[in-house]
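Re: that chain you flagged

S.,

Sorry for the slow reply, it's been a week of failed gels. I finally had a moment to sit down with the sequence you sent. For the record, here it is as I used it:
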Amino acid sequence: MPQGKMPQELDALRAALLVYDADERLVAFNARVEEFYPGMANRIKTGMTLTELAEGFIASAYMSDDSQNKQSMMNSLLARCRLDNHSELREMSGRTLYVQHTRTPDGGIVSLHTDMSGLDLITRSREQLHQDFLLAAESTLIGIWDWHKQSDLLQVNDALLTLLGYPRETWHYAGSLFDTIIHPDDRLALQQLLADASNQQQPVFEREIRLLHRNGSYRWMLLSGQVISLSVEGETLRVIGTLQDITKRKEAEQVSLQAVAAARAANEAKSAFLANMSHEIRTPMNGILGMTQLCLETPLSDEQREYMTLVQHSARSLLRIINDILDYSKIEAGKVELDEERFELRPFLQSMMRALMPIASEKDLELLLNIAPDVPNVLTTDNVRLRQVLTNLVSNALKFTHSGEVELSVTRQDEAARLRFQVRDTGIGIPQDKQSLIFESFSQADTSTTRRYGGTGLGLTISARLVEMMGGELNVESEPGRGSVFHFSLPLPEVPVVSPSVPPPSLVGVTVLVVDDNATNRRLMSDMLRNMGMKPTTADSADAALALLAQNPHFALILLDAQMPEKDGMTLAREIKADARLAASKIVMLSSMSRFMDSGQLKRLGIQYFLSKPVDQYELKEAMLAALATTTAFPASTPQPAQVAPRCSGLRILLAEDNLVNQKLASHFLTRLGHEFALADNGLQALEQLDNGPWDVILMDLQMPEMDGERATQIIREREQVNPAFAHQRIIAMTAHAMKGDKEFCLAHGFDGYVAKPVTLDVLSNEIDRVMGLNLSPDPVTAPADSPDAATLCQRIGVDPPLLQELLALFDDHFTDTVQALDAALHADDRQAIGRLAHKLRGEAGTFGFDELVSLLQRAETAAKQGEPLDAGQLSAQLLQASNAVTARLQELRESL
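Prediction finished late last night. Pasting the structure tokens below so you have them in one place:
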């Protein structure tokens, strides 16, 4: 059947479309018309009038002979079709149609018949889904709320009321329901959250709040919501959301927080306990080590000396164990801070290795130091902690190695700009399954190792943690019976490029014979000599050296290892000197520090120089240069006695110490140092002694009965501050506290020096000398009135006078208010405000040279941040005096511009 000019694509619509012209004749229709109205399939055609179509629709749909009723229905249908923007629902057999009639501008009619048969299913499904959702919310106690803000209509489900313990009194509530039961502290925050959500593109919000339960207790709730609609003006119209009870979760969180607080308190208690134990243990250790040292310096029989040496060795071993435990506890508590500084790497490593040489010599081990030529001379890191790590690794290697060698090597990793530190040994090795265990606390590879070699098992744990803090990772490679290699790398800071050192011309091309039974040592010495431009030849024994010398007697230098099997270096040196052909060769003897070398015997043999292993490259170069420059004279570089700085003697020293053993020990030390001294058993007696006359130095123990050393020192400093007639009293803290920061604490609290127990004679003497050398005369205080003039300030700050005038005005505008705020914080003991205000004002005052005020603010800021006692009255008075002077000086500066 023809369908007018309507595009066939419109047949795909799920709607019947009919178009009439102004004469109400059908001009087009799509195929859906015949589908929706099957009775019209053979009747409908273009050109039919609206009336004819109406008759056909009614005839096909209503099988009745009642012509009057049909006419009435047709008239009604025609009237509705002719209405503009008319719509209606028509129920057909098995189909529901939504009919829309629209008049066109030229008077025609467009009639659209949409099939709505599936709408009912969709509606029923949505209603079922809604019911299921409500049922799920009710069964899981999830509260649902829907708030229409303009009408203030709040709808809630039964679960929400159940959460709050209230019965349903009405189906509709006002928004004030939440306002009446919300905790006062949460009300403003929730209002702000809702306001913020209204201004967002994704207006979703969530907050934990407290709501009042019917039983009178507040319960924690998680309120979630979303703004659904807004007015044209941007005001919230409708908000929906959920409410869930999270009281149990919050209680669990509180329990967890309490557990964390308890753990933190326990950790702090542990640290305090360890610090106290350190003091309690170190105090008797001080007596043991000190008295043992004094006893060993007296005439003793061989048996007595052996016993006392064993006592000293055991006491030092115990002290090392204590230090390990303290280090571990400080790392665990996070109280270890790195103190980075620049230092020369090669002398640092040389001194560290030489200190371990006696241990290597006792076990007849070669201790080697191998530093690659491209390793920079200067390194920036915490050298104290680096020494601790390397000493531990080398000491462990020496402990677990019975024969062979231990080598510390340092190489450069250019691709990563890092330095690799490696400690290699030929010891017992570590099984693969035990290698991760050794880095755990209080662990060694097995219990038999602990019994045989001793130790706490903390050394590697501490080393691994320290390496991690310095930016590396400690690793191990090992095989049982074949030794171990511990290695780590540290970042290498950028350093200026230094041109490689040029070998001295007098060494270039010089032939050298190296005689050493250790292959690694021969390799290291050869590399070192080649770097100096020399020509080394090596021999692994005295006989091999003699054979080489027989073939070529013209070696300018011969480097001999003093310790070799079968024929040692001294014997070989005699045979060399006995050969007239080798008279021109200069000999340098190399030996461990613990090996006694008879200088007279060396002189008789004509040996030019003696160097200790591990050999330092600089020392070796200087020794060879001097040897080649001399003829027969005995070594010009024979070690001369070190120039010792003149020590203070004849001082009047007050010793404040309550422990009898420590009193006795310190008395012996002071007597041997040539000082006069008096004793005080506590801080009160020390103050009384101070009133009897001047003392050059006070040795003050921190922990004493009646009055401790810290309080006594504080009183002395306060008296000096109040009365300028009192000269500064030098005070040295002599204490068993050895935790990180104890020294800094003492120096920051009025002490001039610090000595940790156990005290040795040299340490005590050096600290007394250092403190006596301090310039403690008070620096002239620069009054604000003497602060820089305007011209100097302009030059210092780098501004012109108009800008300086503006800066001074800005400072002056808020200066008084800031001082008043700081004064109020001082009296309220508000440490946070004191630190913040003092820091702010100090930075500004320092810019303009108000040094007296800056010094006062620095003291207040430091005390506030470190939790130290603050004398609010005294600080307030000083602040008032200093601020008045600054105000006057500000006025002078501003008038001078």
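What I noticed first: The longest strand covers residues 218-230.

Talk soon,
D.
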